[in-house]
Amino acid sequence: MSLDPSSTVTALHTAGISHVVWIPDSHLGLWEAPLLESGRPYLIRATREGEVVAIAAGLLIGGARPLAVMQCTGFFEAGDAVRNIVHDLRLPLPMLIGVRSQRAFLAGETRDNCPSFTEPIVQAWQIPYTWIDSERDSPSDLITALRSIERSHKAGIILWTE
């Protein structure tokens, strides 16, 4: 079973995510209607990706279980916030990064360079990560990835193939 927007939102809820803090892109934005309809996880929109990280960190400190969600280019923009939250404060923040054009990149069908930089940047930040492909992976794969981040007591990233 693949991960459509509704099953993704159900998986987030099942994994115990309390809030989705995000700036949606064209792919991840498809989750908005199911998020609003279900009301759980609670949806919080930010204005910049660094703000996504800061809001999610504040929720985490307050005892919530947020997920910071943004696209790869936004992750690049949020670098200083990520560095501070993950390495200075050592908060176990889960993040989901949409890797724009990843499928087309793997097929050699795009000039978009975002996919070529995303994984190396995540590796340079020394943040554990896993890949999820909504066309290949199942809701249980997403739940497993989120629970793995939680059990690690460290920040972790899910790279979401777009």
Q: Explain this structure to me?
A:
The chain has 162 residues and is α/β, with parallel strands linked by helices. It has helices spanning 5-14, 32-38, 49-61, 72-77, 79-88, 102-106, 114-124, 139-152; strands at 19-22, 42-45, 66-71, 94-99, 129-133, 156-161. Helix content is 47%, strand content 19%. The relative contact order is 0.20. Helix 1 (5-14) runs parallel beside helix 8.
Identify the notable features of this structure and list them briefly.
alpha/beta, Rossmann fold, 162 residues, globular, 47% helix, six-stranded parallel sheet
Draw up the topology in text:
Blueprint: H1 5-14, E1 19-22, H2 32-38, E2 42-45, H3 49-61, E3 66-71, H4 72-77, H5 79-88, E4 94-99, H6 102-106, H7 114-124, E5 129-133, H8 139-152, E6 156-161
Parallel strand pairs: 1-2, 1-3, 3-4, 4-6, 5-6
Helix pairs in contact: 1-8, 3-5
Regarding quaternary structure, what we see is single chain
| Large-scale geometry | globular
Largest beta-sheet details: 6 strands, parallel
Strand order of the largest sheet: 2-1-3-4-6-5
Task: Look up the CATH topology.
Answer: Rossmann fold
On the 0 to 100 scale, the average pLDDT is: 96
Termini gap: 17 Å
Question: What would CATH call the architecture?
Answer: 3-Layer(aba) Sandwich
Secondary structure category: alpha/beta
Can you identify the CATH class? Answer: Alpha Beta
- CATH fourth-tier homologous superfamily: Thiamin diphosphate (ThDP)-binding fold, Pyr/PP domains
% residues in beta strands: 15-25%
- Structural Rg: 14 Å
What is the H-and-E element order? HEHEHEHHEHHEHE
Low-confidence stretches: none
